[in-house]
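Hello forum,

I keep getting stuck at the same step: I have a sequence, I want structure tokens, and every attempt I make locally crashes halfway through. Rather than fight my setup again tonight, could one of you with a working pipeline run this one for me? It's a single chain of 498 residues.
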Amino acid sequence: MRRKARCAAVLALLAVLSSCSAGSTATVSQDESTLSVGFTAEPENFDFTSTDGAAIPQALLYNVYESLVKVDARGRIKPLLAKSWTVSRDRTVYDFQLRPDATFSNGAKFTARDVKFSIERAKTDWTISLKSKMDVVDRVEVLGPTHARVVLSRPSNSWLFDMASRVGAMFSRTGVADLANKPVGTGPYVVADRRRGDSIVLPENPNYWGRKPAYRTVVLKYIADPTALNNALLSNEIDVISQITAPDSVPQFEADNRFRVIQGTTSGEVVLAYNNAKPPLDDVRVRRALTMAIDRKALLDTAWAGRGELIGSMVPPTDPWFEDLSGAYPHDPARAKRLLASAGKQNMSLRLRIANLPYAMSAAQVIESELSEIGVRVTIEPLDFPAVWLKEVFTDHDYDMSIVQHVEARDIVTFGDPDFYWGYHNPRVARLLEQADSGPPSRQAGTMRRVARQITADAAANWLFLFPNVIAAKTKVTGLVPNQVSESFDLTGVKPAR
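Reply #2:
Ran it on my machine without issues. Output:
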């Protein structure tokens, strides 16, 4: 029976691979053990240690790569590769007891030596800015095959939470030769095939240590056009739209009993970024004027049919230090004009270089129109996302304003980094962030609220709205998480209806 089951699984996978190679209009296998999920933004490659952007961890984190701990849908830290852990009284020493039966997809056993390797490699070999989250680590000690000790240079209230993100992913010491093309993890799925511009195929990991996934194969389909993405679900090409990008399409799925719509929240702030390091946006009066010139409620109605949530800083309601600052800059074009006049900055021309994603394109049209009313000429430049936007805006800082969704959890800390693409530098904010992280846990939330108020007062950016999590799925698919509060599109709890 086992041999027959394995043969059936192989045949099902071959059917899926054949379907994917047929092109982006092919219908996926109708085998009940296969799930197809539609996404808009495709990973540039599989290496999130050297390539920024959310698409890679969205596909791989918790599914292919695992971390010592993970974040659940309510933002709580839960065990994963670590069965348990203890923290010293001074909050600088973490002792992790590891799963004894976890193995990597290349056959190597997962041990404390891999914990040491992975954390040290994040500090030395990673090239993306998130590597700084490991700066607080002083050393990692191997006390036994399943006992790893991490010693911090100072107390950190955020370090364990950060270990649930991509920066905490565990890598095989023998599996990092070609991360861009051949990821090696301990997760329930492995990467079997990729057709660039179309799909990634994830069959189950036959040697997975934990509960076997309900779907033996998952196909991640990448369809940038929102209408084509909707049609893919309607025509049975996919089973799930991971996040609807065309809000006017939601009613058609709500009215069709073949599907169900799941709506929740995210940690994804849609931000109108200002290049704080570049004139004229290095003037706080200009940034405040631009912020109050934009009717964010009208923008939300246009960009996402009012389904998102207005926020006033880089803090979503799911964060422990949330405070409603959405009323800090009420829509007031007349006052905006006066501020620009006092700054001597009338008749400005600004480049708005945006990710070529539907929400950004819609928001940009509103911004262009409303800023023209206060005498600011805006030139919209859509850039291919993620590759071109990441290179020219995020890395090279070649922009005046930009629009993109920031999906990383608790990413308010980026305003403490003057080298981040905001170009924002306020020593007080940097000091407060350090105090919030290293000070008593009981004071963390209050200090973080002071950070949020300061960057809002400085109009360091314009937080347009919090992106809603709106999923459309066939009714046969269950276990989809309403709230997207981690970097992962977590497939581990998704299963067919019984």
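The two ends are 23 Å apart (CA to CA). If your local run keeps crashing, start a new thread with the error log.
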